[in-house]
Amino acid sequence: MEAECVSIRGPGGAVWLLSGAQAAAYGDLSNTFDLTSRMTGRPVSVALGPRYEVLYGLTCSLPNGGTNTVSIHQVLYPYAWFRSLAQVWTFTPPGQPACGTAQAPATGWVASRGGLFDVLKTAGLPEAPPAAAPVRRRHPSRADHHSRGTR
Fold first, then answer.
1. In what order do the strands lie in the sheet with 15-19?
2. How far separated are the first and last CA of the chain, in Å rounded?
3. What 3-state DSSP class applies to 140?
4. For the chain, what are the domain ranges?
5. What is the mean pLDDT of residues 78-105?
6. What is the C-alpha separation between 130 and 14, in angstroms, rounded?
7. Residue 59, Cβ neighbours under 10 Å: how many?
8. Which of 9, 78, 106, 149 is deepest in the core (most CB within 10 A)?
9. pTM of the full structure
10. Torsion sign across C-alpha atoms 121, 127, 130, 132
11. How crowded is the C-beta side of 115, counted as CA atoms within 13 Å?
12. With 70 as the cut, is the pLDDT of residue 117 above it?
């Protein structure tokens, strides 16, 4: 199995691409195939931060000597915090494809291994999460009506 590419789509539609050694490091450090590191329930006491969509492309060796390409969908939380510890979290939904003779990726929640955030930064992900969009009011306030001369 060989990591070909990782496409990460962030809030607002920004996209980051990882390939080669970066894509391989993503697979290793995110524990994508580690069955022992998964939680079935959403982590408690973890501030996950903004959600990023991941499409992880792999080329897989088949038993007949051929290859196949599969795409694995994950949800990435690169700016998560547990107490005072910054730690990248991923969620892999069930139903992801197996890769050739290798097992399907582990499903559920996992705190990634140290170093994943550095790989993401090298690919261009910002050091800090994007600022939250300002909250817009649905209806103008009474003060707005008076300031515009409407009653």
1. 15-19, 2-9, 52-61, 67-77, 89-92, 108-111
2. 69
3. coil
4. 2-147
5. 88
6. 11
7. 15
8. 78
9. 0.81
10. positive
11. 10
12. yes
